[in-house]
């Protein structure tokens, strides 16, 4: 079996996953499943990029070690990938031992090949973006320079470091690009890369004395290896570069690296150069997609406009979100996310067109044949046409999918789905069902539709695995395949829930608003800590004169005795309370009630009629014990 090794970027752990990260990973999973249908043995790698100053700093702010921070974020990534049904084969972390040793190995090898040398680096360094600014960076106040990426002021630093002889690779890279015209897709991105390399390459500083949280240079352990050298190497360390065994030989070079345009240069220029310097083959292809924008800006934590996939997942299935992202984004372009656009797309394509087709076909089978399409079928020209137009449509879809133009491929699949919907309207099975002599033909009509559904189902499976597996189970489809599948008659249909429930815009926005309000109501733990709730023993209790609702309680708070007034006299007798342990809000400002001082407040639950239920604590609770 031919292998296909594909990768996502490894994500930084100073950021929680958002829809942008999910998009790349979903795209990778869609490609994986499509390649599986084409008969490849596919290996999908994803993971996290955990070293570097940015992560060290974020962890410090949170009072965690970098590894602790990474562990937390890794859990979040893994959980999200599970929810989105990402069938990755390996999750690599750059803090994994085999990765660290593998990075040191490739660093050592490049050094031995004389493409790493020692020098001193002086430059303006952007701590946020973790790079030295280009010469052209604009001057800022007080001798600083402005980072062209993030706009922050940067200071000049000087440090001993190792350099990678990137300048020696200019010609080799250009030659490599020439020989591999499909190396970068889409072509417009490839042109950017070529122009960049043609403009000249300077040696690259690839170690840092100033960064502590990183992989030590094997022969100069006071230095750490530049995060991008470390990170990019994950693609080889994940497939046993350390041992360089059979497995490595089988999987390397990778068939496809997937990423957004922000990290193009690292992957298209530095990475092949590093590999060449280590005597290894560059990857076969890199797919560069655009950004998901929100309000026309790149979704990113620093811009504060990230879309949390968890929110969409509260209302929509993972399949629906996967479909939307893949259907809506044209690989070369940026995509603007709007809830309106999202709902319109999901409702139209999934609920109306595909969902309806499936549920109609199944419902009619249930109704007219008690869930069982009989053996004998009669086919006319029109039914045969369905099969023929599938054969016309499918190769075109495959061509688009192969070139990662899923949006265009899906457009054609949905044209076909609509053709099936129109066919049902024209064939009028409900009228055929009234005529006993048309029974065989009716079976033919329904069998043809179900058969077409099964074959469309295979094309949709890479994008919507869960829903397609449900459809398959309902119609007895054993496997997904790009070969035309005949359905076996008689066919016993199983029940199927609504695949994609329709959610109206108004309904969605009402839910959204409610959720936002709830989020506004949330408090931080520190807010709660301000409230001092303690256990207190009731020493004395008596009615307050001329106030039928009030009791005065003398309570022991452990370190002091106080009086409080409680509005529970209609429901509790004084003697019911004496000796009991209650909960008191201790740091409430004292108030005078009916001329009596109340130094705190008793806690009770209240029902809708305001009847109080006093919170009693176990008798052994020490007086003054804090509730937290
Ligand atoms: N750690 C580096 C990558 C090292 S790979 C050897 C990194 N990490 S990242 O967490 O910032 O992830 C960047 C990648 O996440 C992008 O290339 C892209 O795949 C994905 N995306 C992050 N934000 C995105 C959007 N707003 N839109 C689309 N993809 C986005 O860079």
Describe it:
The protein is α+β, with helices and mostly antiparallel strands and 628 residues long. Strand 1 (3-12), helix 1 (19-37) and strand 2 form a beta-alpha-beta unit. The strands form 8 sheets. Strands 20, 21, 22, 23, 26, 29 and 30 form a 7-stranded antiparallel β-sheet that branches. The longest helix is centred in the middle third of the chain and has 31 residues, at 339-369. The model has no long low-confidence stretch (mean pLDDT 93). It contains 21 helices and 30 strands. 5'-O-[(L-methionyl)-sulphamoyl]adenosine (MSP) binds next to strand 1, helix 1, helix 7 and strand 13.
How is this structure best summarized?
The chain has 628 residues and is α+β, with helices and mostly antiparallel strands.
Give the helix/strand layout:
Blueprint: E1 3-12, H1 19-37, E2 41-49, H2 53-62, H3 66-83, E3 90-93, H4 97-112, E4 116-126, E5 131-132, E6 145-146, E7 153-164, H5 170-179, E8 184-185, H6 187-198, E9 204-205, E10 207-208, E11 216-217, E12 220-225, H7 227-232, H8 234-237, H9 246-251, E13 256-260, H10 264-277, E14 286-289, E15 292-294, E16 297-298, H11 309-315, H12 318-328, E17 335-337, H13 339-369, E18 372-373, H14 381-402, H15 406-427, H16 429-432, H17 439-460, H18 465-475, E19 491-492, H19 505-521, H20 525-529, E20 533-544, E21 547-556, E22 561-566, H21 574-577, E23 581-585, E24 591-593, E25 596-598, E26 601-602, E27 604-606, E28 612-614, E29 616-617, E30 626-627
Parallel strand pairs: 1-2, 1-13, 2-3, 8-14, 13-14, 15-17
Antiparallel strand pairs: 4-5, 4-7, 6-7, 7-9, 10-12, 11-12, 15-16, 18-19, 20-21, 20-23, 20-30, 21-22, 23-26, 23-29, 24-25, 27-28
Helix pairs in contact: 2-3, 6-10, 12-13, 13-15, 13-17, 14-15, 14-17, 15-17, 17-18
The protein binds 5'-O-[(L-methionyl)-sulphamoyl]adenosine.
